[in-house]
Amino acid sequence: HISGEGFIHFAAIGGVDVALVPGTRVNLHTKKGNILGVIGKKPIHHMTPEDRKKVPEMRELWIDIGAKDKKDAEKYVRIGDPVTSTYGFERLLGDVVVARGFDDRIGSFVVADVLRTLSSKKPPAAVYAVSTVQEELGLRGARTSAFGIDPHAGIAVDVGFATDFPDADQKTYGEVHLGKGPVLARGANINPVLGRLMENTGDSKKIPYQVAAEPRATGTDANAIQLNRAGAAAALVSIPNRYMHTPVEVISLSDAENAVKLISETVLAMKPGMDFTP
Hints:
Elements: E1 25-30, E2 33-40, H1 49-52, E3 62-64, H2 70-73, E4 83-85, E5 90-91, E6 96-99, H3 102-118, H4 140-149, E7 153-161, H5 170-173, E8 183-187, H6 192-204, E9 210-214, H7 221-226, E10 233-241, E11 249-252, H8 253-269
Parallel strand pairs: 7-10, 8-9
Antiparallel strand pairs: 1-2, 1-4, 2-3, 5-6, 6-11, 8-10
């Protein structure tokens, strides 16, 4: 909605932590190019003590692009234009980096680098690399991609919850650290044969990895791969990620590099006619 005063009201696409939204700078992606805006809210000085304790609802926030009124805003912005935060890529200490959208831009990067790595090898199987869309909205891109390719096996690459920060609930989400390798999921969504192959490959090639239990559907593209057509062998490799679904997601570059090595070596270890029946 664009108000009469030229302020833009918005809704979330996918999972957004509304507590982190106020006061951020954003880009509105319009047909005239990117328009810079800020997400405004009532100043703290105008709030009651009770108001200060509340997390605002999304409908209580707005984007200010500096427009004079609705007519001025509509010269640049149309209903349905997507919006992203403006945070860029920066290095912290060591090989730790921060950016928005590592979930799941880093997954796409790993997949592309696996394809680059295998291009100079002779893999025993046909290899398809896919960067899917709308995972946050119901695994839609993975569904159509898996249906079109109809693979025998598929490895989804995503981010996983790092639990090496203050107050992390390791009893619920396991013990996952930045810099200790990618995470291999074990559970109902993961084919046991493919899962063991990845673990054995990591052990034999001395590629560090971590393990996380996933007793149900993972909510990642691995779920769509497993359920494709008559079923496919699925596995999930995750890059440990702190502060998921915030504009300051933090990962270790070494975890991404080791994910590339692990997936590449796993593909090279596959045998023609391999049976993935558990």
